[in-house]
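quick one, three chains, predict together pls
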Amino acid sequence: MTSSGYAGKILRLDLTNRKAIAIDTEPYRRWGGGHGMGSALFWDFCKDKTITDGRHPANVCCVATSPLCGTIVPSAGGRCEVVGVGVGQYPVSWFTRTNFGGRFSTMLKYAGWDAIVIEGKADSPVWIDIRNGQVQFRDARDLWGKDTWATQLEIRKRTGVKGGAKNRWQDLDALPGTDQDRESEAELGRTTQKPATLCIGPAGENQTGHGALIHDAGNGAGQGGLGAVWGSKNLKAISVLGTGGVKVHDPKTLLQARVVTKEKYVTNWQAPDFQAWTRIGGLPKPIVQAAPPTDERRPQSCQGCINGCRSRYNVGYGNESACQETFWYGPYVRKIAKNAAEDTEINLKGADIVQKYGINSFVLQPGLHWLEHLYEEGVLGPGRQIPSDLPWESIGTLDFAEKIVHALSTRTDIGADLAEGWVQAALKWGREEDLHTGALQFSYWGVPEHGYDPRAELEWGYGSLMGDRDTNTHCFNYIFTNVSAAFAFGKPLRIGAEEMVNLHVKKMAPYAKDRPEVLDYSDANMYSEAIAQIVRWQQHYCRFYKNSALFCDLKWPDFVNTNVPNLEGATASPDAGEQVFWNAVTGDDISFEDGIEIGRRIWNLDNAIWTLQGRHRDMVHFAPYLYKTVYKKGEVFPFFMWTCRDEKGQWHYRDLMGRSLDKAKVDEWKTIFYRLEGWDTKTGWPKRSTLEKMEMGFVADALERAGRLGEEAS
Amino acid sequence: MKEDKPASSGEITRRQFLAGAGALGAAALLPGHLLAIPNSIPDSEGFLVVDLKKCQGCGTCMMACALAHSGAASYSLSRIQIQQDSFANWPDDIFMAVCRQCRDAPCVAVCPVRPVRANKPNPERGHVRMIDPDLCIGCKMCLARCPYTPSRIQWNVELQKSQKCDLCVDTPYLGEKGGPGGTQACVKVCPVNAIRFVAKMPDQGSEESYFVNLRGPAWSKLGMTTQ
Amino acid sequence: MSYSLSQPGESLSRRILSPVPYKERFPAGRLKPPVGVIPGDVRSLPELHLYLEPDEASLPGIRLEALSAWIEKCIGDKDLAESIRTIVAARNNYVDGCLKVHKILGYRLDQARRVMGESA
C-alpha cells in the first residue's frame, strides 16, 4: 500500500544469503521515516540487541529516507539517515545515528524504496546495484581498497552511465547489467541522472571507529563508525538509479509553502541582509575554512535546499566539501602557510583527503590537538613510549595530512590503537590523566567535543550525555554565535535577551511553551527542571523533525528570523512551518506539537534499545575534565554569550566561560530528567506505564523479558 | 495491453503507424531533415533561458516541474533536466537542459498524428510547443527527433506517452496561471534565479544563445564571479 | 601606516620570525559557525599574523590582554609588546583590537624580514 510521500516498500538486504526482500512500509509509517523508521526496523530485525560493537554480525544497519525526500520541502528533500549499533565509542558503542545529504535519498525514493535494511554479512565484498525495483548483488572484490571517489567513478562506469554533465537519456533497460530475465516486463524507465552511490573507503573497510559513509564528492555520514559496520559486513557500496516519483498529497499547498519560504523567510540574495539572524533565511554560501579559493565557483547543495552550504570550484579541489572537514586541519596549516591563499588550498585539499579515505574528520578536531601535545611532550614519536613514525615535524603540510589519515584508515602506526576508539587508545597508552586535565577533549561516550563546550552550552552537553553521541543539533546555539559575534564587533544587538528567549519559547510546546527559564543558562539554573525540559524538547524535536522527517540541521528550526518584520521564524508557522510541509506531502493532519510527541516515542524506543544494550544511569557521565577543570576564559574565544536571568529576573546576555560542571549536581539533574521522561530514576530504564501510553507495550514486554524494565514505583 | 481504437479516415493509430514504420525500416529513424515537412508555425511567445554557471544543482526546478504537472515530484518526468557530475569542476559540472521552443520545431514537424498533430503550438497560449496527451500515440518520434542532448522530450513510462515543456500551460497543481505571461514553476522556485522566462526568441542558429548570464553585481557581492 | 617601532636588530628579527618552543605556545582558538569553537595555539608571530587575518566567516579567539606579556617574555620584543598593550587598552571592541594588532604585526614582520633579507 502506498501513501502520499512514501514509496511504499522497504528493501531488506540479506547479505549472508545475498537475497533482496521487499517488505511493506505501512507498518512503519507511524514512525515517520528516517531515524524513527530505522529504529523500528532495527527493533524488528536485529535479533540480538545486547550487542555493543557494531562489527558484530547480528548488527543491523538501516539507511532510511522520509516522505519529504525527493520533494521540494525546503532543505528537507535531500537528507538521509543511517542507524545501527556504532563502533569506537566508550565505554559502549550505543545504537546510534548518522546523517548525510546530497542526492541519495531522492534517488532511493524515485527507485521505489523508503529504506534499506542491511543484515548479515557477505562472504566476500559486494556492492548493491539498485535500479528501481531491480536489486542485484555485485562482486566488489576489485573495488575493495579503492577510495570513495574512485569507487563511485568505477560503479558509474559499470552501470554504463557516462561521466560529464551533458549526456543523453539512458534507458535503464539498455544499461549493462540490467536483468533481462526479471519477472516484470514493464520498462524500467529513463533518466539523465547518474547513479547515487553511498560507499566506504579504506577507513570503513578496515573497520575503524572513524570509518564513515561517503556519497558523491562531499556528503559524509561521519559519526558513529557506521562505515566500519559496512566494512564488517563486506559491503562496499550501494548505488541507486530511480526513474519514478513521489506522489504528494497536496501539491498546490506544497508549492505555495515553498514559495512563501523563499519570499518571506529567506533573505533576498539580490539585496541581502548579510547579517541576518536566521537559520533558514541565509545566503547560499559555502561553510569553509577562511575564504573560498576562487570566485570562479557556484553554490552547491543537497536536493531541495533553499540556500546551498557548499560550492564547486574551478580549482580542482574542495568540491562539495563544507563545514568541519574543511576545518579539522586549520590550526596546523596556519603554522606553515605563507598566506591566506595557501591556507585555504591546504585546508580544502585536506577535506578531499578525508572524503576519499572515508574518515570522520571530527575525531581529529580535538584529537590531533592531543596527539600534537603528546608529540611535543616527548611521549609520542619515533622510538618513544607511544611509537609513531609519522613526520610530526611537518604537521600542517599536505603530506602530513595524507599520512595521518592514511594511518588512521589503515590501522597502521598509531592508527592501530586509535582504530578501536580514541579514549580506548588513551587508556591503553597510559594517558587516562588527559581525560581529567582536558588535554583530550572527548566529552561524552568517547566521542569528540564538538565546539560547544558542555560547561557553557548546557542543552548540547546534556543532550549528548542523555543520548548516544555528540548530539550535533544546532537548534539553539546560534544564540551563542550571533550574540558573541555582535559583542566581538561591538555592534548593537539585533534582538535583546528577553525578546530572544520569548521568541523561542512561544513555539516550544509542550514542555517549554512560554517558559523562558528553559533558556536561562546561568549558574543558578544549570541543573534545573527547566533545563531538563529544553533538553527533552530538543531531543524530541530532533528525533522527529530532523532525524526522521529529515529537515536539515543547518536550517531548522528557525525560531528567530530578522527577515520577517515580527522576527518570528518559519518553525511551527502556519504558512511554512515543519508541520505544513509534512501534511502537504503526506496528507496527515498533524500539529507542530504532534510532531514533538512522535519524536518522544522515537526517543523512547532508542532508550529501550540502549537499555537492552546494557545502559544504566551509573554509566551516564561526562568525561572527568568537565567536572575537574573550568572552561577557561579567553583561551579559545574571549567569551561565550548566552541568555541568562539575574537575581531580579532580568534577562541579559552573559558570558558562560569560567565554570565547570558539578558531578553530584549533574547526577541529581539526571534524576529530574528521568522523572520527566517517565523512566525509572534508579536506572534510567523505560517504565511500562510510559511505554504503554505510547502504544509501545511490545517494547515493555521485551525489556521485561530481559529483566531491564524500569520499576513503576520510582 | 490496450486495444487499438478503430481507425476512422485520416486518423493514424499507433498500430498502423508502427506497422508503417516497420515497413519503412530504418528510414523511420533517419534524421528528421530527410522526412522534413516544411514548418510554417507561429513563433512561441515565450522561452526559458538559463545560466549554467549559476545553478546550485538542488534539483528543485525538476521536482517542482513534475509536481506542478502531475502531482508527483520526479526527475524522469521533469520537463527541465539538470545534470551534474560531482567529480567535475565548475563550470563543467552542471548542465541545464530546457526546451528551446524552437522556431522550426523538429518535434512538431515529425509528429505523425493526424488530422491534428499531438505535438504542436498552442494558439490559445502563446503558440507554446506542447504535446496533447490525449492525442499522443507514443511513437517516440519527437523524442528521437529533438536534435539536442539530452532530448528535450521526456518519455512517460506509465502513460506510454511523450511529454515536453509547455512553459507551465498545463499545470493543474501550480495554483497559478502558467504559459507566456504567467508563471513557470521552475523560474519561481529556483533559489538563485538561474532560470528566466523571456519573450524574445534567442538566436536559433546557436545552442549557446539560451545560456545567458543571470548574475550581476549582487552575485559578485556573494563572492562569485559574474564572468 | 607607520608605527613608532624602530628597526629591530638581527638577533631580534630572527626571533620575531621564528617559532617558540611548544611549551611557550599561546592559546588561540577559532569560532567558525556552525562547527563551533576550535582549539589551537600559535607559536610564532608570522603564524599569529596569518591567524588574525580577517575573513568573513570566522573569528579568532585569543586573550588580547595576555598577548603583550607573551610577546615580551617568549619573543623578547619589548617594543612591540608595549605597542600592542597600548592598542589593546584603547580598542573599541574585540574585533577592532584584533584588526589593529594584525596591522602592527604585519608592519613589524616586514621590518624583521627586511633586516633578514627575506621577501615578505
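The CA atoms of residues 13 and 102 of chain C lie 18 Å apart.
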